[in-house]
Specification:
Elements (H helix, E strand, L loop, with lengths): L2 E7 L6 H13 L5 E8 L9 H9 L10 E4 H9 L3 H16 L4 E5 L11 H12 L3 E6 L5 H17 L4 E9 L4 H11 L5 E6 L2 H4 L3 H8 L2 E4 L10 E4 L4 H4 L7 E6 L3 H12 L6 E7 L6 H8 L7 E3 L4 H9 L10 H14 L2 H10 L7 H14 L2 E5 L5 H12 L3 E6 L2 H11 L9 E3 L7 H12 L6 H8 L2 H11 L4 E4 L5 H12 L9 E7 L4 E5 L9 H17 L5 E5 L10 H16 L4 E6 L1 H5 L1 H7 L11 E3 L3 H15 L2 E8 L5 E3 L6 H15 L3
Parallel strand pairs: 1-4, 1-5, 2-3, 2-4, 5-6, 6-7, 9-10, 10-11, 11-12, 13-14, 13-16, 14-15, 16-23, 18-21, 19-20, 19-21
Antiparallel strand pairs: 8-12, 17-18, 17-22
């Protein structure tokens, strides 16, 4: 499984780049191929590109195209949100991220910058993206203008926000801290945050805190007159040359930028002479204001100097230019290797990189979000397209789901029913579904009809089924669809939008039958709760399972859980937890738990256990303090169908959870049943999981 880290900041101008560069340097020493991804970037001019992506790709020589390294520009996100397309935003971000994940061993994901329109929504987006990608986070805050309590409080609130949504925070970094306060900041963070969260404090560094002459040139849209090759000079400060030269020279400081009208030859030449004099500090450059240029004789003199600095010309006046330079926000760009190297050195010096690298390598996400779960399902289905038959071909919901499935290129589909009626229904719905992209079969007119009926007769003649009866049964779409699966003419079947559960699964029980070693067919629902995906079983098939049947349902559900990427922690539910309860019902659950532990000792299982103790860590700790399942269950086995069916529907309706299923377990080939109240989304998801089952999970 590919790993990743998410870098988030609490505010603009936090100096996030220093952490990005430092982390990338660490990762390249630990992984063969490292990728870089930004969910949202600032808008950029056509033909240009985001400067930070360009810096990361260029400096570290990443095998990555610019267009693949981000999902949206800021204006694109705002436009989507104005259209209430939040789901599409998250879905596209996941899609772009997963495309990179497939190519790299580790990915550095960098959050938004809190700049420009839409900044107010960025915090929630960062938390949401990190959660759905299932990756841990580094949080950064700037110490500029904050007291110790404000800085520590800011980082703790950020930590708490991520933790509340189930996102693990590996490191918090206080950046731009006054050097004398570094130790106090670290002590404050360590006192406030849990011990497992690493902390770092990076002091202010003038090299990183000031713009280069190139950045000043770009901001002022200046013309470079001289010294183009020295534009990466760092501007350590700036001063206006408006006084006599003899007085101005005393104001020069190291790496100072000289701002003066273009006709002040004395200041220009004096500053250049000071730059090469051992008695005065070096200057970073000169900005000539007012659109005035030096006279030809002065230009000739400058050209003859052995040592030069960038000299820029701007049209604006001195006062305006000085104010604009004072507001320039320094950035790191690909050509400025000094800033890049300084950033990496500062990060390595002030952050425990050894401990951080260890945490990154050993990190394991708890659970999976519904969005990522659905994305992974679709991806797996598309990886080996299977042929699924839908017996209820004329139902409107089936047709709408068929359109979605064909558009997603997830499966090959066969619809059963009257071809004329189905095609007319497609036209009535005006849904843009090309009927030639699907197979439509009327069972009684199929060239396989007699073969199927004969096969059914051979399989069921010991039950007094004759050929005439078999032919009658084969006209039923459920029997015909199931026989397609049995004969290998389809890989799986999904039905039940119109028919009852019994009508759907009876043919499968009669001749597809159960797998070797499995005595009972059961079902599970994938319950996609707001922050995690859990498994509920059995909520659709077995009314009153025995202890032995309950144990088998649990073991089958654990296998399903593993196959779909969810670590099984099994809660055998009852009205009592542990040894406290007595009675036939709780004893049955207790016995089932004992059978599971004997058959599959490697499984984490707890029972009997109440639902609150299974999901709430505080309740679980109080009732079953030594349990590996209490408070963190992922697979819930209900004692009977009445409890299971009502509970899944209650959770679904009251929490807004998406329930995918039921998915039947234990059959030799996949046949799945829909609820007659199913939605188009239910059908889509059930077909997808059926296709994955058909891949041989």
């Amino acid at each position: 499984m590919s790993k990743a880290i998410y870098i988030a900041t609490t505010e603009p101008n936090s100096g996030k780049s220093i952490v990005s560069l430092g982390l990338m340097q660490i990762l390249l020493g630990k992984a063969a191929k490292v990728g870089y991804f930004r969910p949202i970037i600032d808008d950029f001019e056509k033909g240009d590109m985001d400067g930070h992506i360009h810096t990361m790709i260029t400096h570290f020589e990443l095998d990555l195209e610019f267009k693949d390294a981000y999902a949206y520009t800021r204006s694109e996100v705002i436009k989507q949100k104005n259209l209430d397309k939040d789901d599409e935003i998250l879905g596209h971000i996941i899609h772009k991220y997963k495309a990179i994940e497939d190519r790299f061993d580790f990915i550095l994901v960098e959050g938004t910058d809190f700049s420009g329109e839409g900044a107010i929504i960025e915090w929630d987006i960062n938390v949401l993206v990190a959660k759905n990608l299932g990756i841990p986070t580094v949080i950064i805050a700037s110490g500029t203008g904050k007291s110790l309590d404000e800085l520590v409080g800011n980082l703790f609130m950020a930590y708490d926000s991520f933790k509340e949504k189930g996102v693990e925070v590996l490191l918090t970094v206080a950046n731009k801290v006054e050097p004398e306060n570094v130790n106090n900041v670290i002590a404050g963070l360590q006192k406030k945050l849990p011990k497992k969260v690493l902390v770092g404090a990076i002091p202010l560094n003038p090299i990183l805190g000031n713009p280069t002459v190139k950045e000043i040139c770009q901001e002022l849209e200046a013309k470079v007159l001289f010294g183009k090759e020295f534009l990466n000079n760092q501007a350590g400060g700036f001063s206006v040359g408006a006084m006599q030269l003899r007085n101005y020279l005393t104001h020069l400081k190291k790496d100072s930028l000289v701002i003066t009208p273009g006709d002040r030859a004395d200041i220009i030449l004096g500053a250049l002479q000071a730059n090469i004099s051992a008695n005065y500090p070096n200057i970073s450059g000169i900005v000539l204001t007012g659109g005035l240029l030096p006279e030809k004789s002065i230009v000739k003199l400058i050209k003859g100097l052995s040592d030069i600095v960038p000299i820029l010309s701007v049209k604006e006046g001195t006062f305006s230019v000085t104010n604009r330079i004072g507001t320039i926000r320094p950035r790191i760009y690909a050509e400025n290797t000094e800033k890049i190297n300084t950033s990496i050195q500062e990060f390595e010096k002030h952050v425990s990189t050894t401990q951080l690298a260890e945490r990154l390598i050993t990190f394991k996400a708890d659970g999976i979000t519904p969005r990522m779960f659905q994305y992974n399902l679709l991806k797996r289905a598309k990886s080996a397209k299977k042929h699924i038959v839908l017996p209820e071909g004329s139902d409107e919901r089936i047709l709408l789901a068929t359109k979605k499935l064909i558009d997603a290129d997830a499966v090959t589909l066969t619809l059963l029913g009257n071809p004329v009626q189905i095609k007319n229904k497609i036209s009535e719905l005006d849904m843009g579904l090309d009927s030639t992209s699907i197979n439509i079969i009327n069972p009684s007119e199929s060239p396989n009809f007699l073969e199927y009926a004969t096969t059914l007769f051979e399989l069921r003649k010991h039950k007094n089924v004759n050929l005439a009866m078999a032919k009658d049964l084969m006209e039923d779409v459920s029997y015909f669809g199931t026989m397609m699966v049995y004969k290998g003419h389809a890989d799986g079947m999904v039905s039940g939008a119109v028919h009852t559960t019994q009508h759907t699964i009876r043919p499968a029980l009669q001749f597809i039958k159960t797998r070797p070693g499995v005595s009972i067919v059961s079902s599970v629902f994938f319950m996609c709760l707001p922050n995690r995906v859990t498994i509920f079983g059995d909520c659709a098939i077995n009314p009153n399972p025995t202890a032995e049947q309950l144990s088998e349902i649990a073991i089958s559900s654990a296998s399903t859980s593993i196959a779909f990427g969810i670590e099984p922690k099994i809660a055998m539910l009852s009205y009592s937890s542990g040894a406290s309860g007595i009675g036939e019902d709780v004893d049955r659950v207790r016995k089932a738990t004992e059978i599971i532990k004997k058959k599959r000792p490697e499984l984490k299982v707890e029972g009997p256990i109440q639902y609150d103790a299974a999901v709430d860590s505080k309740v679980g700790l109080a009732k079953l303090p030594d349990s590996q399942v209490a408070g963190q269950a992922s697979v819930f086995i209900f004692p009977d169908l009445n409890t299971g069916n009502n509970t899944y529907k209650a959770v679904q309706r009251e929490t807004g959870a998406l329930a995918i299923g039921p998915m039947l377990q234990g059959l030799n080939k996949p046949v799945n049943d829909l609820s007659r109240g199913c939605t188009v989304e239910d059908i889509f998801n059930t077909v997808i999981i059926t296709a994955i089952q058909a891949q041989g999970i």
